[in-house]
Every structure is written in C-alpha cells, then in structure tokens.
Request: fold
Amino acid sequence: MLINPRNVQAVARKEFYHIVRDYRSLYMAFALPLLLILLFGYALSLDVDNVKVVIVDQDRTELSRDFAGRLDASAYFDLVTHLPDERAAVAWLDSGKATIALVIPPRWTENIRSNREAPLQVLIDASDPNIGTISRGYITSFVERYNSRLLVDFLGRQGFDNLRPALEGRIRVWFNEDLESRNFIVPGIIAVIIMIVGAMLTSLVIAREYENGTMETIRSLPINAVEFLTGKAIPYYLIAMTDVLVALAMGQLLFGVVMKGSFWLMILASSLYLSVALGLGLFISIATKSQLVANQIALLVSYLPALLLSDFVFPVENMPRMMQIVTWIVPATYYIDILNGLFLRDVGMGYLWPSYGVLLFMFLVMAAVAVVKMRREGL
Amino acid sequence: MPVTTSTPEIVSVKDLEKRFGDFTAVDRVSFSIDRGEIFGFLGPNGAGKSTTIRMLCGIITPSSGSGQVAGYDVVRQSESIKQTIGYMSQKFSLYEDLTPVENIRFYLGIYSVPESRWDERTGWALGQARLEEVKDRLTRELPPGWRQRLALACALLHRPEILFLDEPTSGVDPITRRHFWEFIRGLAREGVTVFVTTHYMDEALNCDRIVMINEGRIVAMGSPGEIVAEACPGEAKATLNDAFIRLMTRTERVQGPG
Amino acid sequence: MNRIRIREIVRKEFIQLFRDRKNRPILFVMPFIQLLIFGYVVSTDVRDVKVGLLDQSRTRESRLVRDAFEGSPVFRITHRADDPRELEELLLRRKVDIAIKIGPDFSERIRKGETAAVQVLADGSMSNLAGVRIAYTLQVLETLNQDFIRELVPQRIDYGRIDARARTWYNPNLESRDFFVPGMVAVLIMIISLLFTSMAIIKEKEVGTMEQLIVTPMRPFELILGKTIPYILISIAQMVAVTLFAVFWFDIPMRGSAGLMFLGVCLFLISNLGIGLFVSTISATQQQAMLTTFFFIVPFFMLSGFVFPIENMPLVVQWLTYLDPLRYMLVIIRGIFLKGVDMTVLWPQYLALVILGVVVFAGAVGRFRKRLD
Reply:
C-alpha cells in the first residue's frame, strides 16, 4: 500500500479544522490537561501529615501529660483537644473532625512502672484506608519510640546513666527524597492526559463520520486506510505532544517536579505510548461507529486503566494475581515505569529498554489491528 | 384568548423582521391569509421562506414587527398558537427509531388529544398516510415518500386550523407529489388553511394566492394569474416560471449597484 | 402540567433507549465491569513490603534483625544482596521497596554499648506508601532496640511498656474495597445520569426532531420532566443493582439505612440532571455534549475526596469542593455503608445536596428555552 502524503495532509487538515472550530474540542485538548496538572500539582495529594488526634486522659499524671506533649510536638500529629470520655472521642471520629482518638486508661502510669499491662487505646478512623493505614503506621511507630525513651529514662534513673540506644535506623529516602506525592503524581497524570487526548478524543472521530453519513463519501475517494488513519491521528498527535511539553514545563516551573533523566528518552517514550493510544482510539471508533458507545468504551479501556491499573495511584503489588496479569496488557503500566525511571530514579535505556520494547510492540499491534479493521470496512 | 374569531384573516403579519447578527434574513414583510386559503410562499433558496414560517410557528422569535396567527400574537402568545397549527418541515423530523404507530401515539399524547379518541385518530392517520401494512416497522426503514406522508398525518392529528408546510415535496417523486396536492386541496375544502413554501412553480399553481420573496423582501403578491400579468405585461404566453425569473433578477439588478 | 404528555415522553424515551442495542452494554454491563475493576484494584494498604537485605555482619544480632523483619506481618525479605552495589541495584530496578544494610561492625558496637547503625534505603516514589513503610521499619527497629538494651543491662528490669492497641474503626481490616466500592456506586450514578440526560436532549436537536417538538403546545417543563424521569428511574435501578452487587459479591457491609441512601441518591440526582440539562443547553451536537460532560465529570471526580482527601487540598480548592455534588454524596454513602451513621450526623450533607440541586436545576431550567434561536 503506497502512501500519498498529500492525502494524509488533506485528512489531517480537515480534522484539524474540526478541532479548532469547536471550542469544546480545544477545551478537551488543552484546558482539561492544564486543569488536571494544576489540580494534581496544587490540590491533590495522598500524603498525610498532621494527623488530627484527640486524647482522653483518664490517668492525668505527669507521664500521660508528657506523652501527649511529645505527640503534639511531633511533626506527624496535631493534638486537637482533650476530651472527657470515650463517647465524646467517638463523636469526634464520627463527624470526621479527628482521625485518631487516644484513650489513656486510669492507672496507666502505675501499670507501666510496675511492669503490668498498660494498654493505650488507639481508635483510628479508617474509613479512608489510605489515611487509616498511614495514621496507624505513624502512631504505632511513635508509641514504640516513646517506649524506647521510657526504658532509657528508667535505666538512667537506675544508675545506667550513659546508656545509649543499641541500634538506630538511619533512613535515607531515594528517588523522591522529600516524600512528596506530587513527584510521582505529576508524571502519572501525563499518562492519563495522553490517554484522554489520544484515545478518548480520537474514539469519536471516525464514529462521527459514520453517524453524519460522511463515511460514504470518504469511501468513494481515492484514499487508503493507512492514509486516512494517519491523517486522522496527526492533529491529535501534535496536540497531545504539546500537552506533554506543557505538562513537563508546568511540573518543573510551578511545582518543582524536575525530570532527572533524559528529555529525549521522555519524548521517545511519550511518542510510543501516544501512538498506542491513537491506535486504540481509532480502532474503538471504527469498531463501534457510535460516538456515545465509543466514548464509554474508551473511558473503560483507556482512561480508567491508565488511572487505576498502572501503578499510578494504586500499587500493583497489592492487587490480586488476576488483576496483576491484567496490568501487563495496560500500556500505561510500561509508560509509567519509564516515567518513574526518568523522573525519579534517573536511569537510562539500560534499565528501561524492556518497557520501550513492549510499547513499540503494542503500537505495531494496535496500528495493524486498526488498519485491518478499517480495510474490512471498505477503505 | 383569540382577539377576534370572526375576521376572515387567519394569519396577518406586519413589518415582520428577523436578523441574525448583521444578516437580515427577513426584511419587514407584511401579508395576510384568509381562512381556508392555500397560500404559497415562493422564493429561491435562502430567500427567507423557512425563517418566516418558523417565526409564525414560534420556533424562533422575530427581531421586530408583529403578527397574528389564529388570533394569537406571534411574539407574546406563541404557545397558544401551537395548539391550533400543524407544522411539517422540509427535513423529516419524526423519530426514525420508532414505528409509525409509536410516532402517532407520541404526538397524540403531546397534542393532548383525549385518550378515548386515540384509536380512531391512529386509524385515520395510518389510513391517510397509507401505512397500515408497515405500521409496526421502524420508520427508518420506510422510503422517504412514505415517511413524508407519516409526518403530514402526524401534523394533522389534533385537527389544526392551519397547516404550515415548509418545502413539503422536496425530494419526492412526481406521482407522490400529485397525490400530495390532491390531499392538500381536500384539506382546504374542509376549511383548513394551508401555508406552503416551495420553489416548484407547477406546484405553486395549486395555490389560491402567492407571495414571492427574495433576499428577505416581498417582491410580488396575488393569485398566480395576477402575478404573471403584473410581472410580464403583454406577454400572453408567459408562465409563472417566467414571472418568477423576471422578478428575482429584477431585484438583483436593483440591489446590485446600490 | 399535563400528565399524559409527560407519560408519553417518558414512554417514548424508554422505547428509544432500549431499542438501540448499542445502549445496552453501557447501561447494563459497563457499571459492573467498572465496579469489578475498582473492587479488585484499589488498595493502598501497606503489606507485603518487599525488603532487600545486605548482612555484612552475620552474627546473632544481625540475624535477630532479619528475624524481626521476617516475623513482622508487614515485611517480606525477598532478596539478599552480597554487596552494597547489588543492594542499590535492587532498588533501582524496583525489585524491593526497602533495602536494609547491616554493617560489618554491627554486633561489635552493640556489645560495646555504642549505637549501631542500620542503614535503611527506602524507595520514596509512592510517597504515601513510603512514609508508612518507613514508620513500620522504625517500629521494628525500635522494638529490637529495647530488646538489646534489656540484654545489655545485667539486672532484671521491672519496668513496663505502653501497649498501643490500635483499632481501626469503620473499616476494621483496612479494606480499601469497603471504602472505594460504595463511592463507586455514587460515581457510576453520576456518569450515567449526567451523560444520558444531556445526550437525550441533544439527540433531538441533532436529528431535527426538536423543531417538531417546539411547534407543539408542550411546555418546556413537561419536556424536561419527560426527559429526566427515565434517567431518574434508570439511575435508581442502577443504584439498587450496583449496591446489591457490592453487598453480595464484595461482602461490603451496609451498616446504615437503605432508605437514607435512597433519599441521598434522589437528592444527588437533582444536581446531576440539572447539570445534564445545562450541558444540553450549551451544546449542539452529541460530541460537544460528551466532551462538555467529561469536562464536568473529571473535576467532580478529582475534587470529591473519592481518592484524594479533601483535607489535604489548599484552602481555596477546599472551598471549590463545596460546589461538587459528588463530595456530599460520597460522605453520605460512605457514612451509611462504613459508619452506619444517620441523619443526626449527615443532615448538613443532605441540606447541601438540596440547596445545590435546587440552584443548579432551577438555573438549567431557566436557561432551557423552547426555542431554537
């Protein structure tokens, strides 16, 4: 099949007019990506700091006050108030005004000092499991460190005054030193944007020709499937790549999300992934011939997987085995792996080539499937 | 409430105007139609025929001027007009994914025809449109001429006093067109006023009275014979077609240099 | 208002909706697939943390460190490294989440009463998870620390410790599913009701049937009711089906009142239908309507607290979330499912939905004209 660049150009130009003439397409192409980047950069975060704590101190000793004081001084917690009883604490949890309620029972200090059981009741609002998990991790870790302190203090009073901790964890965080969720969310959102422009918008373009009856005319033209599909894809390719560059620039300038790896590797990966998306969108469009259905299917197979099944927000390792296997066929999985490598780990082709390989393979398959389907439809 | 019911005029329009931005689609037209008349609205494409009809039916609002249809004001009482009129547009505008019976039932409901009369009216409409055989097929599957008959029947379900037809016969074969005009004349005999736009001159001969419109302005008014006589004085063999062409080019000449 | 007219519009709408085969998968299959994916996928729990270990000491003490991690329900030692490069490589290749290095002089220092360092390298890419992993690592090490100190001191230590008994309320097993699936019910209702309402009206405009409706004596409000009632019914049916699916398939407990949830969904629908109606007034084609709808759905979704907690947002954005009907619906639906709370806690959410719904719906109806120009 020979490709006539003029045919491609003609289709691309026509498609481009469609986009430019309807401000809504432009919205989707440019404003929505910007909105997403702004939202994710400024507003949306999975990090939890300053967990709100309420305390019911039924012991009222120097120790229980010291405990509360150190908790409040910790960077992780925010001691909101003291409450008289557990019922009041539960009410605070119910209304969502506090995440953790601590109940220090009567004779707590006495029990510690005489080596009896000294339970500390920790009630955690786990209705948001992310916050619940983080809060539980923080509070149990805090209590354990407080225990070490108590022990050393006690031994100090017993005469072991230059006792030092036996071991100490020296934590170094790699790849995302400040533990900012935007450092991994902003790259991830680029993958979502590419799917919106590449697959969701393009899923409408051929269905629209069918619904408006213009497909008949196109069939009668001396244009082949490859030329037609390439022409349809080009404007969206350009728009999506512009979005990627804008997202990169905004990430860096506004949010300080700096890509450590190679810019050109990033462009190569984005091109490959975007091409997969375009192939997918066009295929859905040809197969459904209905804008509404195409839109819904594209939502299901492009947008949602990019958001959910790609190690973007929800870790793949937590998913059941079946779902982990499903993630292998989600293109975003590989793109996000590459972005993670380029943005956070600063690694190169030596580490990332398998993901590039899979994306290239996916692109070839998707393009072939779309072209074959288009030819079967008589083009 | 109708202002007057006794006058013979069922439609009267004065200085009706519609502008879309800088473009004046209808430029201060005035005319009136008598009860039971077949009234033709002639003009080339884009002359303002559809815009006029759509203002009279309350689909769009006039920019200025006034008009009455069946005694109701077209600007302030357009909703009251709607119970008394039937309307069929040049584009088929019933539901293609419903069957003829379902379409009829829908419009019976919309026009609040009493439910006791639904069976009778459905039978009447199917008979008029000659669609009894295909009453449960999807409308989409019917030939264009048949669909047009269904649209006409649906526009008459509520027995309107006046029927607006916007290029009803475009794309319809000559035999169907003849049947169509026989039907229209029958309606007029029963006292229904018919307002029809067309650019087929042979069809226009069926009209009692004609208005010719070009670039939003009325260029001639009267019975077909009067118009021919006026536009082509002294030419015995002149047809309505000749008159039409002459009138249309005349206005162009007038507007050209000025 | 004419009852027969509304009835006939509803009837027609249902015929059209179900006659078009392409609508069936969207209405009947899609919601369940989405629910399934969400139910199985979403989990931000921290468990099975993969640990890479480099033990250069190989003594009793270093083995105790290893045992402590292996004994913890949170960690799993998946890789052993032989030198620091190999350990770092494990992290770079994302084979492990945490790399632990025990230096050669580890035991020596402990025995001498000095502080021995345990090097912990954490992959911080998913910061929220990394934070928790680090907290748990520290907790394991701190417990060990106390054990070692007790060993170092030659006498019996008659001093207790605080035993933190954490109870995670509302969601005792920290099941992300219990959190996300009820929320998904609300999201699905939003998507379907918004999209289909706007499409139903736009289709009339696009096909040209709107013009025919305009010349009938039907009132705009009758058209609006006739067009929205089918989607109210469908949304409610969907709510019931999806809720039953959530309860019986995913075993998600429903602690509160089904009646309250029903009421919530009805109020929620008012805003959605209003927005759908509004979209239909500013769009001329189905494509425009879809794109515009998507433009609403995405921010509504992101700002609702569905995934990203509202408390974490900057104050200005937090104010914006008050305009998001999904925000209130999520609080209601999660409150009813997880907390089993009732009107005494939820009334502000209901009130907000009523106010928002009335304002949006009235605004959209006001914009909706039975005219074409």
